[in-house]
Write a structure and sequence with these properties.
The chain has 87 residues and is α+β, with helices and mostly antiparallel strands. It is 17% helix and 18% strand. Strand 3 and strand 4 form a beta hairpin.
Length: 87
């Protein structure tokens, strides 16, 4: 597995009209199942619909960014260093 096999996603509660930004990463192979599960969770939150805000494609706010990495064959969200090394 390489970084090209990974995608940034959100893990946590879904609501009817908005998700938080990406906070984890999964394998591209798992993305279709992830989207199906997320759309189902949104439908539950919206009492049976996907809401006016979600079509299953535009899942995250436009301001969200997420960079993925592959470490020990695991997809992870790559987090910038917090020790000032990136400044």
């Amino acid at each position: 597995m390489s970084v090209a096999d990974c995608v940034a996603v959100y893990e946590g509660p879904a609501n009817c009209c908005g998700l938080s930004c990406v906070n984890t990463a999964i394998s591209q192979r798992s993305l279709a199942a992830y989207k199906r599960g997320l759309v189902s969770a949104i439908k539950v939150a919206c009492t049976g619909t996907t809401g006016a805000c979600h079509d299953g494609e535009a899942l995250f706010p436009d301001s969200c960014t997420g960079r993925v990495a592959c470490r020990a064959s695991q997809c992870v969200l790559d987090v910038p260093p917090t020790d000032g090394a990136a400044e």
